[in-house]
Design brief:
Elements lengths: L1 H14 L16 H21 L1 H6 L9 H22 L4 H19 L5 H18 L7 H15 L1 H7 L8 H21 L8 H23 L6 H17 L1
Helix pairs in contact: 1-11, 2-4, 2-11, 4-5, 4-9, 5-6, 7-8, 7-9, 9-10, 10-11
């Protein structure tokens, strides 16, 4: 399926009409803004399907072992985070409501699958809009939301076992499910980096480039390190290439 996405992007690059000569473009005529839009639409479309048809979409990535219920739950959460990331590229103002809705909607499934209390997921759903509101009112620094997502994402990506235990879970995870949990957190870290762009003095295009580069790095970490041997890596390589190309344009 990812190969089809890659081909579709390649044809859109080939057929795009030229715009301002000053815009940075790939050979064939696609601008940074167009690349951001195309990647956003691809991410939203793929993730929206995966969020509803999680096992069917996961099968497209050819897992080497049968998916456990825990992997399926983490996979659905991953599709939700990626859906919010796609929204971030297309309509940033809708990012926080989307991500908050993802956390809230996963509370029941996580509670049952991981034998954990549901309130941590509900807390996430409440904290995200609260931080956004507080930053808008000047009650917390503007970087609070981005810093929160980046810090939590890095913590969960590199200190997964500790992170997982903090949710008071009672189910042990295999490598397949753990790697998917780490991948979820790498996505959160990438979105946090994007939101920190203004604090870091980045332009909009630089923030998008940083986000896409971080997302590509997260995909490669999943394929080559955390989830090595768990899935056919070609799908991950295709997504990493798409994200890296978008980062290069910006």
């Amino acid at each position: 399926m990812l190969s089809l996405i890659t081909v579709a992007l390649a044809f859109s690059v080939r057929d795009a009409k030229p715009a301002a000569a000053s815009a940075l473009r790939l050979r064939g005529g696609i601008s940074a803004g167009e690349a951001q839009k195309y990647i956003g639409y691809l991410t939203v479309a793929s993730s929206a399907v995966g969020y509803v048809y999680t096992n069917e979409m996961a099968d497209k990535y050819e897992p080497t072992e049968k998916l456990t219920p825990q992997t399926t739950a983490m996979g659905r959460m991953n599709f939700g985070v990626q859906l919010a990331a796609g929204v971030l590229l297309l309509k940033p103002d809708a990012f926080v409501p989307t991500l908050a809705a993802v956390f809230y909607s996963m509370a029941s499934q996580f509670g049952e699958t991981f034998q954990m209390p549901r309130y941590p997921m509900v807390a996430w759903a409440a904290i995200l809009p609260a931080l956004q509101w507080a930053a808008g009112e000047g009650k917390v620094p503007e970087w609070a939301l981005g810093g929160f997502l980046l810090a939590n994402g890095l913590f969960g990506s590199f200190m997964w076992e500790t992170c997982y235990s903090l949710y008071q879970t009672k189910v042990a995870l295999n490598k397949q499910a753990s790697s998917m949990g780490q991948f979820v957190n790498s996505g959160l870290a990438a979105t946090g980096l994007y939101l920190l762009g203004p604090t870091l003095g980045w332009s909009d295009t630089q923030a998008v480039a940083g986000f896409l580069a971080a997302f590509a790095a997260g995909v490669l970490k999943f394929v080559l390190v955390d989830g090595e041997g768990m899935f056919n890596p070609m799908g991950g390589y295709a997504w990493a290439a798409i994200m890296a190309a978008g980062a290069f344009l910006n």
